[in-house]
Amino acid sequence: MEGLQTLWSSTAIANFEWPMLIMMAVGCGLLYLAIAKKFEPLLLVPIGFGAVLANIPMAGFNDPGGLLYYVYEIGIGSGVFPLLIFMGVGAMTDFGALIANPKMLLLGAAAQFGIFATLFGAIALNFVPGFEFTLQDASAIAIIGGADGPTAIFLASKLSPDLLGAIAVAAYSYMALVPIIQPPIMKALTNEEERKIKMEQLRTVSKREKILFPLAVLFLASAFLPAAAPLVGMFCLGNLMKECGVVDRLSNTAQNELINIVTIFLGLAVGSKLSADKFLTVETLGILALGAVAFGIGTASGVIMAKIMGKFSKEPINPLLGAAGVSAVPMAARVVNKVGLEANPHNFLLMHAMGPNVAGVLGSAVAAGILLALVGG
């Protein structure tokens, strides 16, 4: 009888607690969104499955010596996985639209206003009973407004590892919901005539310009904000490999095999932080709410900046382009194009929107560097 009791107590069924079951249901919910709704499936599938694994009692996935423990410590605790993802994203990015129209950098910068507005919002939540966000926590939460998953994970791993799971889920959830969240904000801040504005055709960008651009960006970032150099540097390396034309094998590997492998382990590592004791807190609800606010403010500030620029520009500027300043590449640019086509079936804004979209990637990396430099110590 004692042997049977020992055997029973060693099973997962005997050790399940309701918070674990809730988090396994959350993991299954993420899998549903990824598989049935196709919301960011490349990351939500491993994140969701990682959440299920992390909440299996007695399995030891998160304990020292467990698979998820080492995946997290090696890949995210060190900050390596987000940087490798950034290199792959850089290898898939074309800066041509931004080089042809450098003014779009302002839209990428304006969209980062949501990050700093949310920083103060997170600090203000400390006046609500149950919330205790440090300045480091608030900074990590605020980066959700940049709509850049790898940057959010990188900053959270440096400043607030305990909140990483909630921050990553919020960041990727809102990235997946770009087609739902952004259009109402864009339409509320613009009228029909503004949405119909047609942009002039972009000039052709030379290969030399595309090669020099990532080097110039890296030099400026390193000179003025070295804390952002890891993210910007890996992004620029990937882009240089793509544009130089002499290392196609390396560029293709960064765009395909490497980024796919890292994405699997990055998702599992994030999922490992969705354990019941880390996720089921009042702070998680605050993070999800602040993430939505951050994303909305980022979209709105980009549109408003585009309208201001249009007032002072000789060439017409469609204010919808400002919404592409968040760094959800290329989804935000596609949403801008879709809303523009609804207003004018002959208004193709995709290539123009890619300018502020890739500027937003740089903007979120710079914002992360600023926050890291200010509160990282």
Describe this structure in words.
This protein is mostly helical and 377 residues long. The chain is built from 21 helices and no strands. Helix 6 packs parallel to helix 16 and helix 13 packs across helix 19. The radius of gyration is 22 Å and the shape is globular.
Using brief descriptors, characterize the structure shown.
377 residues; 21 helices; mainly alpha
Please write out the topology:
Elements: H1 2-9, H2 12-15, H3 18-35, H4 41-54, H5 67-77, H6 80-91, H7 96-100, H8 104-110, H9 113-124, H10 135-142, H11 149-159, H12 164-176, H13 178-189, H14 192-195, H15 207-224, H16 229-244, H17 248-272, H18 276-279, H19 282-312, H20 331-343, H21 350-375
Helix pairs in contact: 3-4, 4-17, 5-17, 6-11, 6-16, 6-17, 8-19, 8-21, 9-10, 9-19, 10-11, 11-12, 11-21, 12-19, 13-19, 13-20, 15-16, 16-17, 20-21
Summarize the structure.
This protein is mainly alpha-helical and 377 residues long. The protein is built from 21 helices and no strands. The chain has helices at residues 2-9, 12-15, 18-35, 41-54, 67-77, 80-91, 96-100, 104-110, 113-124, 135-142, 149-159, 164-176, 178-189, 192-195, 207-224, 229-244, 248-272, 276-279, 282-312, 331-343, 350-375.
